[in-house]
Amino acid sequence: MRAHSPSQSATRGSILVAVLWCLALLSVVVVSVLHTARQDLRLARHQGDMVQARYLAIAGIERAKAALFEDLRQRRRASRPANDALGDSPDIFRDVALGRGRFSVIQPGSPADAPRHGVADESGRLDINVVQTNELLRLPGMTHDVAIAILDWRDPDSVAGPGGAEADYYGSLNPPRLPRNGPFQTLRELMMVRGITRERMSGDGGQPGWNVLLGLGAGSPNVNAAGEQRVDLRSADERSLANVRGFNQDIARAIVARRGREEFRSLLDLLDLTPAPPSGGPGNPGGRPPNPGQPDVFNPGGGGGGPRLVSQDLLIDVADLLTTGDNDNAQGRININSAPAEVLACLDGIDLTAAQSLVAHRQSVGGFSHPVALLRAPGMTVDRLKPILGRLTADSDTWRILAEGTVPDRDTRFRVEEVVRIDLTRCTTLSHREDDL
User: Fold this and answer.
1) Which of 231, 276, 303, 434 shows the smallest number of beta carbons within 10 Å?
2) % of residues, the chain, pLDDT over 70
């Protein structure tokens, strides 16, 4: 057997070492490639789950829109006012299975550990573009400086109110910004206003957050519960007024007579309505009431001397059929059938105790047919209701929907929030968000 020379053995040893190093490097490369491929696969699966969760959330949004449309259709058919029936409906909004995932519609602002499943009525909140200083100051945790800063942000001028903030302040921030000097576009925009923090928006110390007490864009159609145009006390002719359910010719004539001397500013003015003078003149000579045997109660704002023609009960029964305004979609009115006590307590003359009493009465009677029906609530009087009646409604067409899609395999979740306006012909999306909800 031929022996190898030392140089040949050394060469072969070097080659073997090189081969082993190559194998080791290749192993490292293969392991790295496999690890990267595994990571890419996991990321691809996660991205796929996120896409599915997103579309599950969108399915929840569409489910809520369909439910709102059906609720509106049924309400119009039954002449029922808007209420909070869809505010907590777990039977139709909780863990709805779809494909390999599920979706839920969650009441915005409800506790994370015990969420309510439903939609939020934007008319149950204070509209941030309509609310005034005195109402803002009654919000839990609100300060004067923050309230003025909110008004400065939305007003058209660049002059800061006492304690407020305008361009000089916002321009000094890092990064700088400018106030909108116009209506808020989203509720989230409030976070840009000086003094507003995440804690104030979400709530702390057992107090509800401003995110559930403030809203944006809510409308109140000037139609009755059946969806029909109301009769305008300021312009309707005598025949139209007489055809109102519960009215008669005497009431219609008295309304037209009063209108010639004094404008109807509120439906509550009807409680002072007295018969029109027989001659159609400004008074009733001799002061004798048209209906003998009834008390003669003279009211200068009515048609003349005589008894009141419209009782409180009659006014409550017909209030939803009448109007003293021509605004087809009055913005910012508060729905007395869905507003929490903390929102009602922001109104003039209503403290938190009175607001809680109104909510308790609302729950006991199943809701109010019209804001005038508040007169049947304990403690409510005509003098107390009259200044705030124009801020109230029993209808709503604007809703906030928060939907969450879930793919259970890896517990992937995605949330979508929309504010929508619903009527019997269309659904209009006022805002849409898909971020850290």
Assistant:
1) 434
2) 88
